[in-house]
Amino acid sequence: MKVFAVVVSMAVPLGAAMGLALLPASISYAQAEVKSVPLPSPTPSNAPQQPSTESIAWVQKHAASWPEKTRKLAAQLITKYGVPATSTDREITWYGNGPWKRTTLFKEELQHNFANAHKDVLEQAVNYTVPVDKLAPLAQFNGSIVVNRTRGEMSSLSDSEDTNFLALNVADELIRGERNVEQARTYFAQIIRAKMIHEPEKDLQALKFKPGAMTADPDELAPLIRHMGGAEK
């Protein structure tokens, strides 16, 4: 692209300035070449983290017989959160990693067809008080949302961390009345489709709510037991 700039000094008399207009363009105009520089292609902010050499070595040592996709996920999680706190031949677990109260990766795969067919292997939990009247709607929305009322936890079981972010974000909206069950399922499916075609979505990148602190609910003694002085023996 050529950019032309007229060069006229304010100190030049008017007649001389008019004379400049009659000069050839190559003299009366200063020309500058402006080269366009192509911008790099944007990288989706929810792109999986590449496993480190150390994490791959750990997985080869402790989970060599696990399914290939799960081994890759294990290496990504170790790269992001460090070596797990506990590990067995069937599961590995982190505690207090990032926004999660607990993260557990399972060797055993569980088939789940909503919103798309996948294998549930990664469970991630947060502290959350779920009202009793929201338990059934949560189960209708997504069967892999698990609520432990006594512990004060809500968790999501899926095939990836970004899907767990999404599931719990939508669950939170359902609990707060921003979506009903049908709306929650439709929105969840829309974002999963966006993920499948590599469109970055904020609901896949982080929790949109702040997990609670003191959320455990020990419940209360049943009347039949209370009158017996039902303290734990």
Describe the structure.
It is built from eight helices and eight strands; from the N terminus they run E-H-H-E-H-H-E-E-E-E-H-E-E-H-H-H. By secondary structure, it is of the alpha+beta class. It starts with a strand and ends in a 7-residue tail after the last helix. Residues 1-45 have low confidence and may be disordered. It has a six-stranded antiparallel sheet with strand order 3-4-5-6-8-7. A two-stranded antiparallel ribbon has the order 1-2. 33% of the residues lie in helices and 21% in strands. Among the domains are: 2-33, no CATH class; 86-204, no CATH class. It has helices at residues 14-20, 25-28, 53-62, 68-81, 135-141, 161-175, 181-196, 223-226, and strands at residues 2-6, 29-33, 86-87, 91-95, 102-112, 118-127, 145-148, 153-158.
Give the topology, please:
Elements: E1 2-6, H1 14-20, H2 25-28, E2 29-33, H3 53-62, H4 68-81, E3 86-87, E4 91-95, E5 102-112, E6 118-127, H5 135-141, E7 145-148, E8 153-158, H6 161-175, H7 181-196, H8 223-226
Antiparallel strand pairs: 1-2, 3-4, 4-5, 5-6, 6-8, 7-8
Secondary structure: helix percent: 25-40%
Radius of gyration: 30 Å
Task: Indicate the overall shape.
Answer: globular
How many alpha or pi helices? Answer: 8
What's a quick, concise take on this entry?
The protein is α+β, with helices and mostly antiparallel strands and 233 residues long. The protein has 8 helices and 8 strands; from the N terminus they run E-H-H-E-H-H-E-E-E-E-H-E-E-H-H-H.
